[in-house]
Amino acid sequence: MAIKKFVVGAFDDEAVLFPAVKQVRKSGYKIHDVYTPMPIHGLDEAMGLRDTSLHTAGFFYGLAGTCTALGFITWALTYDWPLNFGGKPFFALPAWIPITFELTVLFSAVGMVLTFCYLCQIAPFVKKDHFHLRATDDLFVMVIECTEKTNENEVSQFLTDLGAKEVSTQMKETRWWIGTYDNDRKPFQTRQVEAVS
Amino acid sequence: MALLKYESQVRPPLVEGTKDYHQVTEDICRPVEGNPSRLWWIGFLTSVVFLLFGVVSVTREVWFGVGQWNLHKTVGWGWDITNFVWWVGIGHAGTLISAILLLFRQGWRTGVNRAAEAMTIFAVMCAGQFPIWHMGRVWDAFFVLPYPNTRGPLWVNFNSPLLWDVFAISTYFTVSLLFWYSGLIPDLATLRDRARVKWRKFFYGVASFGWTGSTKHWQRHEALSLVLAGLATPLVLSVHTIVSFDFATSVIPGWHTTIFPPYFVAGAIFSGFAMVQTLLLVTRKVLHLEEYITMEHIEVMNKVIVLTGSIVGIAYLTELFIAWYSHVNYEWFAFRYNRVDLSSPYGWAYYLMMGCNVLSPQIFWFRKLRRNLWVTFFMSIIVNIGMWFERFVIIVTSIYRDYLPSSWATYYSPTIWEVGFYLGTFGLFFTCYFLFSKFMPVIAIAEIKHILKKSGESYKEKMDFVEEEPVEEFAEEALHH
Predict the structure, then answer these.
(1) With contact defined as beta carbons under 8 Å apart, do B54 and B420 qualify?
(2) What is the structure's pLDDT at B478?
(3) Shared domain check, B126 and B3
(4) Range of B460's domain?
(5) How far apart are CA A147 and CA A154, in angstroms?
(6) What's the pLDDT score for residue A189?
(7) Where does the pLDDT of residue A178 fall: very low under 50, low under 70, confident under 90, or very high at 90 and above?
(8) Residues B438 and B474 occupy one common structural domain
(9) Potential cystine with B81: which of B48, B77, B193, B372 (Cβ 3.0-4.6 Å)?
């Protein structure tokens, strides 16, 4: 991926944003993304995004934790080095439940957070291009990707009619790169070249 | 849309004053972006002094050995383990607020969850210090982990409650940290995008992981929060249950009780909420956040305090009754002569515990007192003193007169270094809290914005007309939306 051209419309009310999203989709434009300062329930559905399967991943991580704990303790205390505690059975399942439970939770939580970071491509020192600084403050920023066929002025006018407070056309990098927000070290040499062409 | 967002006018607003999204950002970011006040510096430096005293105390303990403490053959667990259980208990409120109340869809949690979670993490950090330094040869602390070693490999004893504790506390710390930080990421991004100074852009840029606020990311973020809450809910109950197993699975009179797990969990929530009150009453005043941490929040938490305090009270009476009813001589001796008897060496501690934990919170049955800031602040401290004595009573009065009467003579009282270690953890706790309140938003900005249009004062006022509408009409309209 590289530099692309976008029409950016900033809305200041989610009650205006929802019908706008519907209208834009109905008119056949491709919504690149909508950036919001807080989670807005139903927006993902309105945009036609499919539900996340992060929960399912969490279940399998948890299962891995259960198996690791039970498997390891069983191996260590019944096969590798059985210890006789007051004549109790080597396979003392009830006593292993607490650790099994803790590891289930631990694996699931750590796994899910890492998966979340991977899916969203977020990590320390990751930098991404932003369309509007106030998207983390009070604006809902709808970004429409331009293709060769798109008439920017038409899209801009369309967004204004739908109630956008600010509309602009921007060239932005769509991928992340390593950098910090105080100092923009551009890793892609082609960045400017492509932007010009 | 509007109708679905509607919340009854009977419920008082959770965000007071006329606010829009931008105003919320401004209000919560202001303390972070401004220079620290004189009060902040005084508090911070005092905490650092306490922390240093703790470092000296611990250094002495490591250098000279556990003999620096007044523990002896009969009382092998004293202040140290009391403090451990006390801090772990305090560390329960944060996850309770953020996880259990999220599952129960309690909107008021949004005002207090961020600070409470931070408090949880710092409290667990403090708690962890005690068992670690109690080991004496702290450089061998890693022996508690099951790692392949040259001694066989000889594995740790997975059947031991002390090892369960290692897993429980470390899992709890990790999960709380992940939960807290994943919630912080969007708010740190807000700070990053508002930053004007170079170091702020750098610091918040790195800390916010490149968060953009994309809808897909929010969708995943919501799913993550919900599942983490689902995981943290049984976790928070399991942690203090396992801490109580440290006692309950032993055969010491006074400890060997099946009531311990629920009793400990209730006590943990009780003391945790008290600590949240102590911190937030000061925080809201100093950072001028009275419109976000409102009287409603304080009243609700006082209700939780009176509820859990009463549960703890019932637990005290139940264990006393069962000790008598069981006809076990040793059990009854521990309760009759070591605790209830006011003239016994530690009888005063038992009555102090009863007074602070069971009787005093009952004043919160009165609405006027629940909504009084000074009473709340005073009570939050009283409750934590009471809860400290609960652990002290459980630990020390159960073991200072053991099965062998010839060991009875010694009265356990701590040395200055035991006390110093405890004060040091206060230093650690408040140093962390002061840094947190300076560099991170103490209220979850995105979550407040999420409930603003439903529970914000100015938005609720606009929905007044719905209250007037007949129910049938409202239902009709809601159905067609």
Answers:
(1) yes
(2) 65
(3) no
(4) 1-12+456-481
(5) 13
(6) 44
(7) confident
(8) no
(9) B77
pLDDT classification of A185: cutoffs 50, 70, 90:
low
Residue A192 in this model has a pLDDT that exceeds 60: no
Report the number of distinct structural domains present in chain B: 2
Residue B297 makes CB contacts below 8 A (sequence gap 6+) with: B14, B108, B111, B112, B280
Chain A residue with minimal CA distance to B187? A136
User: What's the mean pLDDT in A123-127?
Assistant: 89
Is the domain of B3 the same as that of B124? no
The answer to whether residues B37 and B59 belong to one domain is yes
Return the pLDDT at B63: 93
Considering the domain architecture, whether residues B8 and B96 belong to the same structural domain is answered as no
Structural domains of chain A, ranges and CATH numbers in brackets = 3-51+134-196 (3.30.70), 54-120 (no CATH)
Who among A76, A96, A124 is closest to B209 (CB)? A124
Under DSSP, the state recorded for B67 is G
Sign of torsion over alpha carbons A93, A94, A95, A96: positive
Number of Cβ within 10 Å of residue B322's Cβ equals: 16
CATH code of the domain containing B132 = 1.20.1630.10
Average pLDDT on A62-73 reads: 96
Low-confidence stretches of chain B (pLDDT beneath 70)? 1-7, 409-410, 463-471, 474, 477-481
Q: Could you tell me if residue B327 is left (phi over 0), alpha (psi between -120 and 50 degrees) or otherwise beta?
A: left
pLDDT of residue A183: 60
Q: State whether A95 and B159 contact (CB < 8 Å).
A: yes
Contact by Cβ (8 Å): B347, B354: no
Note the pLDDT of residue B3. 44
Confidence (pLDDT) at B374? 94
Closest by Cα among B210, B183, B188, B196 to B34: B196
A181 contacts in B (CB within 8 Å)?
A: 192, 195, 201-202, 204-205
Which residues, 6+ apart, have CB-to-CB distance to B102 below 8 Å?
A: B109, B225, B226, B229
User: Count of CB atoms within 10 A of residue B404's CB?
Assistant: 9
**Do residues B419 and B471 both lie within one domain?**
no
**Are residues B398 and B447 both part of a single domain?**
yes
Secondary structure of residue B139 in the 3-state scheme: helix
Binary contact (B159, A36; C-beta < 8 A) = no
Three-class DSSP labels, chain A: CCEEEEEEEEECCHHHHHHHHHHHHHCCCCEEEEECCCCCCCHHHHCCCCCCCHHHHHHHHHHHHHHHHHHHHHHHHHHHCCCCCCCCCCCCHHHHHHHHHHHHHHHHHHHHHHHHHHHHCCCCCEECCCCCHHHHCCCEEEEEECCCCCCHHHHHHHHHHCCCCEEEEEEEECCCEECECCECCCCCCHHHHHHHC
Interface test with chain B among A6, A32, A61, A102, by most B beta carbons within 10 Å: A102
Q: Which of the four pLDDT bands, split at 50, 70 and 90, describes residue A179?
A: confident
Tell me the CA distances in angstroms from B240 to A85, B138, B260, one per residue in order: 25, 24, 9
